[in-house]
Amino acid sequence: MPTTSSMALQIEGLHKSFGPVHALRGLDLVVPTGQVTGFLGPNGAGKTTAIRVLLGLLKADAGTVTVLDGDPWTDAVRLHRRIAYVPGDVTLWPNLTGGEAIDILCRISGPLDPRRKQAMLERFELDPTKKARTYSKGNRQKVALVAALASDAELLLLDEPTSGLDPLMEAAFTESIREVKAQGRSVLLSSHIFAEVEKLADRVTIIREGATVESGTIAELRHLTRTQVTAVLDRGVDGLAGLPGVHDLTVVDRHVTFAVDESALPAALARVAELGPRSLVANPPSLEELFLRHYGDELAALAGDGGAR
Amino acid sequence: MSAPTTLGQRRAVASAPRRASDALAGLGPMVRLVLRRNRVRLAVWLVALVAMLAYIASYYQELFPTQEALDDFAAVSNTPGIKALTGLSPAADTLGGAVWTKGWMTIALALAIGVVFLTTRNGRADEEAGRTELLRSRMLGLHAHTVSSWLVLAALCLLVGAGVALVSAVEGLDPDGTGIAGSLVLGASVTGVGLFGLGVAAAAGQVASTARGANALGSVVIVGCYVLRMIGDLGSGALTWASPIGWGQRMEPFAGNRWWPFVLLVALTAALLAGALVVESRRDHGAGLVAARPGRGWAPRRLASPLGLGLRLQRGPIIGWTGAVVLAALLFGSVVEAMTDLVDDVGGEAGSFLRGAGVPALLAMLASMIALVTAIFAIQSAVSLRTDEASGIIEPQLAGGISRIRWAVQRLLIPVVGSAVLLVLGGALLGAVYGSTVDDPSQAGAMAGATLAYWPAVMVLVGLAVALFGWAPRIAVPVTWGVMVAMWFTTMLGEVFGLPEWLLDALPLAAVPYLPVEELSWTPLVLLTLVGGALTWAGLDRFSRRDIQPA
C-alpha cells in the first residue's frame, strides 16, 4: 500500500504525560512525503517521547497522530512493515553477534535483501561476527543503522542516529540518507548536530518543553533572523548605524561587525561598498543561531546569575 | 487517507483495543530468538532436574530393597523437620513415596524459581534495557515478545514434567498394580508448580518496571507460598491448601493420585497470564503498574562515600531482606509451641534426621533457615562489587579521589555488618516470640546467639564472592550463586549423592555448631572466620592490582 497523501507523518496538538510530568504539551510536527524533516530540541524537550508515540510504543493522551495514513497505536504492526527506526542508545543481546542481531531485527519485518545488508555492513565498516558485548557505543549504533538502512522502509524514524559515530561514519550516514531521499522515501531526523541537519533537512521543527516553537523550511526560518556581516572598512562607519534594519554595530579599530535584517541587506551592503571595504564576510544565519535564539532566554539566565535559576 | 480525528475522537481511538489479529505477529522469529538466547540455560535446567530425580530413584532402589526397609524409613521420616522442609508423602512406605519426600519439593521449587528468573530475563529485563523497543519498532505484535518466552518456558515445564514421569515409570516407582498412574501424577505436579512460577513471573513482569523488581516480586511470592505450605504441613494442613505449591503436594503421587489440583494450578496460571496480557495491552512501553516518582534534586553529603552510596543503592534489598527475616522469625516463633506435642510424640529415632530431638532440634532448624536467608542477602550485596564493575558505574567513583581498597572495604561493610544485624534480629525475634508462649524470656538471647553463630559461615561465603571478584571477575557472579545453590542441593540431597560425611560437615553452613542442640564449640567458628578473612583479603589484594574489566 503506497502512501497516497502528501504527508508521511503528521502530528497535531500531541499531549503526553507520565504521572505528574507533562512531557509533550501540544506538539506539532510534519514530514512531507519524500522529504527530510530535522527535529531539534535540547535534552529532555520530548523528542524521544514523540518518536515513541510515532512507533505506537506510547499512547497519546490527546492530539492527532497519523503515520503513513494510519494510527500508530492501533495499526502499529502493519505500519512497522513500512517504517525503520534507529534509537539514539542501542542495546543489544550481549551474547549474540552483531550479525545475528541485524538478521533478527530484519527478519521480523519480512525478507531481507542480503546484498543490501552486505553493502551497508561494508559502508559502515562493521564486523558482524563479533559478540555485541564487545561492541563500543558507535558499533552498537551501526548495528541499528545497518538494520534500518538495509530495509526498504518508506519512513525512517531516526533518534540521534549518529551519536557515538566518528566523522567518517557520519559522512557514510549522510550519504545513505541522501540516497534514501533520492528514492522518494521520508525521514524524521532528530539530532543535536546542526551541521548534519542543515546538510540533510528540507524542513526543521524546533521544540522546547514539549511544544513546537518554530517550524518551516530552512529558507523560511532564515527569513526570521539576521545576516551577520563582518568587514574591515577604510573610511569609517558613517551612516551605517543609522540604516533601518542594522543592529548591534560594533567597531574595534577598523573591524566592523553588525547584524542586518534580510530586507535591509541590499541597502546595508551598498553603504558598506561606499566605505572602502578591504574584506567582507556575510554569514547567513546558521541553524545554530536559529536554535539559540529560541533558547536565548535560558542562555541569558545562565550568563546572568551563574546558572542558579 | 483516514479522516483526521478530533481530540475527543483520538481519545476514543486510543483506548480501543488494538487489532487482535496483530497481537502475535512475528511470534515465530521471537520463539527462535528466545530459544537461541537461552539454549544453554534451558538444557541445564531440564537435564539437571530430571537427572536429580533419576539419581534419587536409583539410589533409593538400592538402599531400600525390601518393604521392611521402606517401613523403617517411613517411620524415621515422620518428623516435623521433614514435614516442614520437604513435606511428607502419605505413601512414605512405598518406593515412590520415599523418593517423592526426598526430591519433589527441591525439584518443583527449583523449577518454579528458575522459570521466574528466565521469564524476567526474556521479558522485563529486555524491555528495561531497550531491546524490546528495537524489536517492537519492527513488525512485531504487542504480545509476541512476551508470549514467545511464555511458550518456551511452558514447554520447559512440560518437558521437565514428562522427563520426571518417564524416569519414575522406568525406575518402577509406582506401587505394584497401579500401572504408571503415580508417575504421571508426579510429572504433572512438577509441571503444575513450574507453570505457577511462570504465571507469577509474568504478572510480576507487568507490575514492576525493572528486572530486579520483577525478580524480587516473583521470588517473594514463590517463597511466601513455600512458607505458607510449611506452616500448613506442620499444623492442620489448611494453610497448605492456601499455597499453590501445596496444591502440587496434594496431588499425592503414588497415594491419592489426584488430578484436580493440577487443574487448579493450570487455571491459576492461565488467569495470571491473562491478567498480564491485559496490563500489557493497556500500558505504555517501558512502564509498570508502579509509576516512577520524581526524587530530590540534590544528594546529602553521606552519599558521597562508597558506604553511603552503597546503602542508598541497596536500600530496597536491605529493607526487603530485613522484612523477610522479621516475618519469618515471627511466624516460626509462633508455631514452635503448637508443635511441641507433635515433636514429643515422635522423638526417638526420628531425632536422627533432625540432628536432634524435641523442641531444641526444631529451633535449631529454624535458626539455620534464618541463616540461609541472611546468607542470600550477604551474597547479593557482596556480588554487587562485580556488578558495579561490569556495568561501568565503578569507573566514575574510582576516577574520583578514592582508592580501590577503600571503595571495596566500605562496600563490604554492608554484607559484613548487615548479616550480623539480620542474624541477631532474626534469632532474637524467633526466641522472643517462642519464649513468650512458654514464659521463658531467656529464649531471645539464646536464639540470638544460635543464629549469630552462623555469622562466620556467612563470612566465608562473602569471602568467596570477594575472592572470585578479585581473581575471576568475569565468572564471579554466576559462580558465587552457583556455589550457594550447590550448597543448598548438597545439604538437601547430600547423602543421596553419596558425598562423604566430612565434606558435608565442612560446608560453611553445616560446619556451624547446631545450636541449641549441640554444644557451642569455638574451633569451627574461629576457623570459618579465618577462612572468610583470608578469602576476602586475597580477593581485595588482587582487585587492587588487576585491570578494571567492564562486562
From TrEMBL, chain A:
Principal location: membrane
Keywords: Antibiotic resistance, ATP-binding, Nucleotide-binding, Transport
GO MF assignments: ATP binding; ATP hydrolysis activity
Cellular-component GO terms for this entry: plasma membrane
Membrane topology: Peripheral membrane protein
Residue ranges occupied by any ABC transporter domain in the UniProt entry: 9-234
GO biological process: response to antibiotic
One Pfam family in the UniProt entry: ABC_tran
Cellular compartment(s): Cell membrane
UniProt record similarity statement: Belongs to the ABC transporter superfamily.
Protein name: ABC transporter ATP-binding protein
Automatic annotation (TrEMBL), chain B:
Transmembrane segments: 42-60, 103-120, 140-168, 180-204, 216-239, 259-279, 318-339, 359-379, 412-434, 454-472, 479-500, 520-540
Residues annotated as signal peptide: none
Keywords of the record: Membrane, Transmembrane, Transmembrane helix
Taxonomy, superkingdom: Bacteria
Protein name: Tetronasin ABC transporter integral membrane protein
Organism, as annotated: Cellulomonas persica
Upper classification of the organism: Bacteria, Bacillati, Actinomycetota, Actinomycetes, Micrococcales
